[in-house]
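Hi there. Long-time user, first ticket. I'm pasting a complex I've been working with (about 659 residues overall). I'd like to know whether the download I got is complete or cut off, because the file seemed smaller than I expected. Thanks.
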Amino acid sequence: MNIIVCIKQVPDAAEVRINPETGTLMREGVPSIINPYDMHAIEAGLWLRDQKGGTVTALTMGPPQAENALREAISMGVDEGVLLTDKAFAGSDTWATSYAIYKSIEKLGADVIICGKQAIDGDTAQVGPEVAEMMGIPHVAYVRKIDEVGDSSIKVERMMDEGFDIVESSLPVLLTVVRELNEPRLPSLKGKMKAKKAEIKKLSAADVGAVEDKLGLKGSPTQVKKIFAPEARADREMLEGTADEQADKLVKKLSEMKCLL
Amino acid sequence: MPIVVDRSKCTGCESCLASCPFDAIEMKDGKALINEYCQACMACIETCPEGAISEVKGADEKVVDKAALDAYRGVWVFAEQREGKAAQVAFELLGAGRRLADSLKVELSAVLLGADDSQAQELIRYGADKVYHCDDASLASFNDQPYSRVLSELIEEHKPEIVLAGATPIGRSFIPRVAARLITGLTADCTSLEVDEGSRELQQVRPAFGGNIMANILCPNNRPQIATVRPRVMKPIERQESRTGEVIKVTPKDLSSGTKVLDTVKEDSGLAVNLQEADVIISGGRGMGNPEGFKLLHELAELLDGTVGASRAAVDEGWIPYSHQVGQTGKTVCPKVYIACGISGAVQHLVGMQSSDIIIAINKNPDAPIFGVATFGIVGDVYEVLPALIKKIKEAKA
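Hi, the file is complete. Here it is re-exported in full:
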């Protein structure tokens, strides 16, 4: 079974801070990590390989330094890392990103493609389903459990608002997975050694046969017009004093407003 | 790259660096250089005192057939249903859609798949002029491929300029397929939608970059403009019993699917529902320091008949289950009183709670962004303020 896991290198959101004066992001010195949901996708890929045999390939699109994310995936047990990198991809929105990934997967070939449910930097959850549509294959989003894997079908549970659905899909299929699915394994010492030496395969837009005007800013239907910090509330009141005084003032305010008390 | 630095004008003053929300400007040989992270947001252009940064048009500029875009008219709402009943989010979207349609002087239509005619009528009472309705039994339970095919084909036939859908497990799963198929833009989890009457462009606002900042996103050259909106963000208009509209029956050609829903299992997710319906929410964040701290929050919640929420940071630390999470990746809530304890207030959290009536923020750091949305702000240690507050409330109640 050919398994492709799509991963993304993201800034560690917990470390990102806003510059209070300019309201912009301060990313300097912020470490890059594998998108946390993608760690569960990697684990799911390895688990599937344990069940059915085959290979797990980690695929990422990004700048040259995204290679580090692939090496980390290899240290966890992934067989191969593929880096999709090209200046032509710069500024891609979810449509253009999906197109580039779709072209790569077509070239690599896969029976099961696994993605994290969303990336923590954009939180759109769009690329997985868009890739599936472009490939003309089914997908199941928010997978929390894999019940059965056959040679031509797979049975999974997908999270819904009020519970879950048990869904059967034909193969090939694309799954997007949630944290509840599994506990990602830690890299082994052997894995780390392998990751260090592994050769990362690099693919350009031309290598995967992607058409230039469907890539990057040019191929992106959406455009970021403006970035801004959210507005502050005008009627704010700060309650000063010791903790006791502050608590007292708050309780009085709330009683005046006939709220809660 | 449409944004360029004129190296002959650049003095290397570095004043543009901080203006870039994407970290896309670096210094090379003493001059600014725009790298591949650039999203062409143009924030840097005005910060350059030398006027050295500009947008280049030309080679990279897309040829846009404006007449083709103009053929798209009307606002649509995908009205999702669960177990045959239109979901609350559908009515909320009709409220938002009604406002947009009135500004653009066009019709508001809803698309309803897999429910009966009573639901189509209900959508009309909440603002729809037309309902495209397919009651084929195979659409009763949500299935990505037929849903996306049917909606895409309807869009191709009728050409609406705007399509709205709920950012729910259903909308977030299949609407991307629709955007992929139609080669158009999709903006997820919008918190505000405005329309420019002249250009007819939809101004979509959503949190970006882990929810630390807001972005205004456009889809200038493709139609329709598709946006998803989370439940509880928009307000429905008042239901009008006597409102009338047209129901158009749709008979799709192809309902085939690679997936099949074998069973739908309901779980008692009472808590999640509680969060969205609670009048009082007491939330804790990273500043609580440890899972023990949440006992204080539960104590206060019990006293005020409220529910305990949490920020993503607290959930990520494993102090409290995900079902308590408030924010862009958790629940959007709108209680009468929201008490944020030790939550710094990343935009990702703020968008999930800022429409609460009264917001009380308790945080050690006076510069924490949470104070920006607070009605009452208390700068202090949660471990001093909360016990004092619990004591005072007990006294007031006694």
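A couple of notes from our side: Chain A touches chain B through 99 residues (CB under 8 Å). The first strand of chain A starts at residue 2 and ends at 6.
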